[in-house]
Design brief:
The chain has eleven helices and no strands. By secondary structure, the protein is mainly alpha-helical. Helix 1 runs parallel beside helix 3, helix 6 runs antiparallel to helix 7 and helix 10 packs across helix 11.
Length: 204
């Protein structure tokens, strides 16, 4: 049976779907993963308020972003097959990286959240992507800078929040790329593409 599409412009429907997703996430991830999801949601909520988006939409994206993180590889691949997009070689070698795409499918099919910006933000939160919406940039950054992250002191976040959203995103993205490169880990192509896009946009 088809799930009714949630109207995120309706405050009551938005609040209800957030509660449903919170309850669901508690049952499918570890306590520490749930706590990370809540911190990410609250950080995204704060950033949405700061950068002119609906705060509760940020919370929704944050609480849902990792709901497939602890699914089996088979479960993740089954969900991802529904988005009909190619799976990169990096994702083939490390299927766990597909958890965002899986969550983007699940939020539509199980919870009726079809909003393009929310779906895209969740799908791309791991690597980021060129052409990201403001919500996409916020969720990517919030996941990396929520207060549970080792580098994320109050002063660190205060400094980032003083920047424009594009500047903040570029800083967080470069930190993430640098972290991976220094450890000899492969950086996904979409991360480099967004970095190039933001650098071009911010160059006078």
């Amino acid at each position: 049976m088809a799930v009714k599409t949630v109207d995120l412009n309706n405050p009551e429907e938005l609040s209800q779907v957030i509660l449903k997703i919170e309850d669901y996430v508690k049952t499918v991830v570890s306590e520490s993963r749930y706590e990370h999801s809540v911190r990410t949601a609250r950080t995204a909520e704060k950033m949405c308020a700061l950068y002119g988006l609906e705060p509760k939409i940020g919370y929704l994206a944050g609480i849902a972003h990792d709901m497939c993180k602890e699914f089996s590889t088979d479960e993740v691949l089954k969900l991802v097959s529904e988005d009909q997009k190619p799976v990169s070689l990096l994702e083939q070698n490390r299927p766990g990286l597909l958890h965002g795409r899986a969550a983007a499918v699940l939020i539509q099919t199980k919870f009726g959240v079809k909003d393009r910006n929310v779906v895209s933000a969740i799908a791309n939160h791991t690597f980021a992507a060129a052409g990201s919406s403001d919500l996409g940039k916020i969720l990517f950054a919030a996941d990396k800078i929520e207060p549970g992250r080792p580098q994320s002191t109050d002063e660190y976040r205060k400094n980032l929040f003083s920047k424009s959203l594009d500047e903040l995103t570029l800083c967080v993205l470069k930190e993430n790329i640098d972290y991976l490169e220094k450890r000899g880990k492969k950086v996904a192509k979409p991360s480099y593409e967004l970095m190039a896009e933001l650098e071009a946009k911010l160059t006078p």
